[in-house]
Amino acid sequence: MLFLVFELDGERYALDAREIVRVLPLQPVRAFAGTPPYIAGVIDHEGAPVPVVDMAMLALGRPARTLMSTRLVLVDDKAPAACGTDAVTRSATNPATTAAMPAPTASDNAPPRRIALLLECATRTQTLAPDAFAEAGIATPEARWLGPVASDAHGFVQWVKVEQLLDERVRALLFPDPPSWRDADSAGDASPGEFASGRRTP
Q1: Domain coordinates of the chain in residue numbers?
Q2: Which CATH class is domain 2-200?
Q3: CA pair distance 32, 40, nearest whole angstrom
Q4: Beta bridge pairs of residue 114
Q5: How many secondary structure helices (H) and strands (E) does the chain include?
Q6: 13, 165 contact by CB (below 8 A)
Q7: Are strands 71-77 and 20-25 parallel, antiparallel or unpaired?
Q8: Cα–Cα 20 to 30 A to 164, which of 16, 44, 83, 190?
Q9: Cα–Cα dist 97/99, whole Å
Q10: Which of 23-27, 101-105, 138-142, 163-167 is predicted with the least confidence, judged by mean pLDDT?
Q11: CA distance 88 to 83
Q12: Tens digit of pLDDT for each residue in 154-173?
């Protein structure tokens, strides 16, 4: 498998290249108040705002440095599946289990939700076999995005699990459904007489 390798304070991490939509040069990031410190803000990509996850802040508690090798890597945010791969496989081979599978929803057909990862030293790719990775032997419940590790002549490299980067609380902040601005617009459409003392009047 092909991986994009990046570094944080000398430690190497790897992103599955199949999950990468595009690698962009560093560009201005518009900060947003009220988000966790590792959400650096948003960038404009092809006319749409894309949230930026600062991996240095997430992993080390410091902002990413502006280096020649610092990149913005676009990936699709995919929430962890409610059922595992085994369940999907069983449903394909056993029709009796299909009835228990949840029906598709409108969100299943929605465009992918994109995030940009702010990465230092993200200029190199490496091919690693999936079976070269093994569990690190240390549980990281507060950093579920840290996957198994592999080793080579240069030391360890750790697989970053994109689907575990955001928890549900942060997803609700970045991708509100319905969008929060719609509520504001609805309130703005009301006539001035509809609001008095913080409530609607008849």
Answers
A1: 2-200
A2: mainly beta
A3: 7
A4: 76
A5: 4, 12
A6: no
A7: antiparallel
A8: 44
A9: 5
A10: 101-105
A11: 7
A12: 899 999 999 999 989 999 98
